[in-house]
Amino acid sequence: xxxxxxxxxxVQAGGSLRLSCSTSGLTFSVYHIGWFRQAPGKERNFVATIxxxxxxxxxxxxxxxxxxxxxxxxxxxxxxxxxxxKPEDTAVYFCAARYFMRxxxxxxxxxxxxxxSS
Length: 118
Prior knowledge:
By secondary structure, this protein is an all-beta fold. It is built from no helices and eleven strands. It has strands at residues 2-6, 9-12, 17-24, 31-38, 45-50, 57-59, 67-72, 77-82, 91-99, 107-108, 112-117. The strands form two sheets. Strands 2, 4, 5, 6, 9, 10 and 11 form a seven-stranded mixed sheet that branches. Strand 9 (91-99) and strand 10 form a beta hairpin. The mean pLDDT is 97.
């Protein structure tokens, strides 16, 4: 199983980035995919999650209304569209997969750095 994260970078406040989480080795449609982030010296926090069908999504309070999670099951890829970025969104962003019957995320991708300048 592999989760490959891409799309991070440096952006000015108010800007946008689209992060991608491309997967392989999973029966993709039965896995929920989540995005998490970790800023330097801070704990890892939940950002967003999407169900296997894409019909259910959830967001952490800091990103509600600004970020959108989506998935393309044909491409086994999940996206995180980040809009109206703020300096406090600066972090390493990770994606993770959990089997729909489990409560824990058991597969993780490497992180991608998102830096938002003021």
